[in-house]
Amino acid sequence: MARNILVIGELDGGALSSTTAELVGGASRLADGGQVSVTLLGAGAGGLTDAAFAAGADRAFVNDDASYDDFRSDQWVAAAEEALDQAAPDVILIAQSIVGRDLGPRLAFRRDTAVAMDCVSIEDSGGAFKATRPCYGGNAQATYAFATSPAIATVRAKSQEPLDPPRDGASGEVVQLSAAGASRSEIVGREAAVAEGLQLQDAPVVVSGGRGLGAPEGFGLVEELAEAIGTDKAAVGSSRAACDLGWYPPSQQVGLTGKVVTPDLYIAIAISGASQHMAGCSGSKTIIAINKDPEANIFKAARYGIVGDYKDVLPPLIEAVKNLD
Questions:
Q1: Three-class DSSP category at 307
Q2: What SS3 class is residue 2?
Q3: At the topology level of CATH, where does 5-176 sit?
Q4: How confident is the model over 58-95, as pLDDT tens digits?
Q5: What DSSP element (H or E) covers 243?
Q6: Helices (H), strands (E): how many in the chain?
Q7: Can you tell me the distance from the alpha carbon of 225 to that of 56, in angstroms, rounded to the nearest whole number?
Q8: Full-prediction pTM beyond 0.85?
Q9: Phi, psi of 269 (to 5 degrees)
């Protein structure tokens, strides 16, 4: 069934954010002959239309006003509604980001429609648009059908695939949006997080340790495994329990009150699999669990599991990974 889809795009470092490219690619497959539109807001947005068309968009709603660089709800809502009025979409897709968590519910309220948050899957099912999201702390998944239009979904990073190969040389329609108006919000300061190495949300492999390590020194083996996989491929995470004990930095916490990650591979070491933690990693494509408790909840979510003490399991595993080349 052909449907028009509007993606609320985001910029990152002067380029399309990776999640925007993923959503546009997913939208192009879901549109089934309908039109895919994307909004691009902020300084340099006008120079990214070719990238948007290559990613799968047919039309780009653009404004280069630098006032859009810092997200202010009222300005972005106004721009999104202007694009929405012209695109007449059946579906609106937004990244599950700071922007999406704020903008999705606002647009749903203003348009008297429904929004599904934090979705890990979007699909056409018998001609109906459906969205799937984790529930019960990541222990189950719920699929939603929409009785109102436009359907709005905020979608997790890495849950959609960008077009491969991209449509290099593709062209489309460019529509200028209005400049940002005065905002009722004022940004009084900004403090950037200082982080070294590959970030959790960007890593294709996440290796996490939990309280079952028994001591902070246990993270030495966790880090060694991540290093063996590759510092350009793997990042180290932690359960909330281990962070609360001071064993690992809170910035690396995975879970409901930490980071939500969707890597290709998630290795959970000495983590029981509490619902709070699973809410942060259940979107992983593959989960491997290492735990000495055969009844640990983590094994219910894992595709592969090793029952054993991590002190016995990790050293030979690390050596095996090092010898893969």
A1: strand
A2: coil
A3: Rossmann fold (3.40.50)
A4: 999 999 999 999 999 999 999 999 999 999 999 999 99
A5: helix 240-244
A6: 9, 17
A7: 38
A8: no
A9: -115, 120
